[in-house]
Amino acid sequence: MGVPPALRPLLVNAVELRRQPGASRQVATAIDPEELGCESPVPGVRLSGQVGIDLTATSGADDIGVTGSITLTWIGPCRRCLSEVERTVDVEIAERFVSPGHPAVDERADGTTVIEGDQIDLAPIIRDVAVLELPAAPLCREECRGWCPQCGAELSTDSCGCETERRDPRWAALDGVVLDDSD
Ligand SMILES: [Zn+2]
Ligand SMILES: [Zn+2]
After folding, report:
1. 125 CA from centroid of ligand 1 (Å)
2. Residue 140: nearest ligand to its CA?
3. 90 C-alpha to center of ligand 1: Å?
4. 151 and 128: one domain?
5. β pairing state of 112-114 and 84-98
């Protein structure tokens, strides 16, 4: 099975690493989400820019450990006010690659992948981690109040004065309080 050229930097030669326990190889690159096959399960939420990858594969006594992090940016509509939210996050990765027949395979341990052939392919792990990081319901900020159902004013920034506006008593307690939005 051929690996697309864009994903070749994510292949690590397992045979070579295993000859030298303790040896490590760094994989530092950036890949387009489309190349990785990252499909968002959430309508309107998508990955933006490239996925930054900084992982190190280290040869252990009976496995190869992969640790490090990926950096990704997602964009999606705030669930309350529908404004576009953009966030960049670092996600830690710790995965163990073992040979077929290794005891960890029978245990179906989390974070364990069986090495197929001579190469370790980091792409599926990065893809899964990136997709899991996409929020099901983005929020621009905790205190976002969305829109007035009567006039459509954005309640976080405007006070529209609609009489029929139903106030949450928790917000009434904040009347007159100056909110510190600097973050
Ligand atoms: Zn919002
Ligand atoms: Zn209003």
Report:
1. 31
2. 1
3. 23
4. no
5. parallel
Domain around 150 = 142-183
For residue 59, being part of any structural domain is answered with yes
Mapped onto helix, strand or coil, the DSSP state of residue 19 is coil
Q: Who surrounds ion ligand 1 at CB < 5 A?
A: 78, 80-81, 140, 144
Ligand 1 centroid, distance to 1 Cα (angstroms): 45
Domain count, the chain: 2
137 found inside a domain: no
Greater confidence (173 vs 66) lies with: 66
- Tell me which ligand sits closest to the C-alpha of residue 141: 1
Q: Which residues pair with 113 in a beta bridge?
A: 97
Verify that 157 and 125 share a domain, yes or no.
Answer: no
Let me know: does 47 contact 72? Beta carbons within 8 Å: yes
What pLDDT, in 10s, does the model give residues 9-18? Answer: 999 999 999 9
The pLDDT score that the predictor gives to residue 46 is 96
For the stretch 27-52, pLDDT in tens is 999 999 999 999 999 999 999 999 99
Q: Are residues 41 and 74 in the same domain?
A: yes
In a domain, 61, yes or no: yes
CA 161 / ligand 2 centre spacing (Å): 6
Do 154 and 77 share a structural domain? no
The end-to-end CA distance of the chain, in Å, is 48
